[in-house]
Amino acid sequence: MRILAIDTALEACAAAVIDTERGRMATESLPLERGHAEALMPLIARVMAQAEMPFTALDRIGVTTGPGSFTGLRVGIAAARGIALSAGKPAFGVTTLAAFAAPHIATENSAGITVAIDARHQHVYMQVFAQGGRAVIPPRIASAEDAARAARTHGAVRLTGTGAALIAAAWPSRDTPPVIVDDRRAPDIVWVGRLAIAAKDNASPPKPLYLRAPDAQPQAAARLPRR
After folding, report:
1. How many Cα atoms occupy the beta-carbon half-sphere of 94 within 13 Å?
2. pLDDT tens per residue across span 128-153
């Protein structure tokens, strides 16, 4: 299977072409907090050229669906669905939480892991995985204190994600401190691809995973009067 993986959910603009028979064929990841819309399509073009592959040769497209930046999610998902439509291939969504957890579950599945993404204001987007990668808490937004309590309850004292330090800081001093196994600012794009490869064929098209309303709200007072 050949797949194009795309990630614009957090602080990177990344794409990779993976062939299950030949392995990773091309990958590029740019540290980026803003400007995903301008950077993504040229980056995808470079990755596809490096892989020497037309879009029609792909079997599927995978993309991160969040939680993450509202703008970044829309950019990546729109690109994935557009490429899938034009190439006549299916598109599959992968949550950023699962993408953060996957490499650590693969290397050590006998212990749980808590994934946390900084949601600002001392809150995190989180998910808890038990032994073997079984999700015991679905994606949700929580205070750092509540996230730490949930992680301790399920014995998932390994932490990963951009919000890992927030949970560690909220950990009770009387308890054995958690272990931050990774604090990278975005998931590994290759694992986004691997999870999309493993997705069920009947999965629905990717759509953003929003766990809270956007901070920006329309201002009624600024509306222009109708003529």
Report:
1. 30
2. 999 889 999 999 999 999 999 999 99
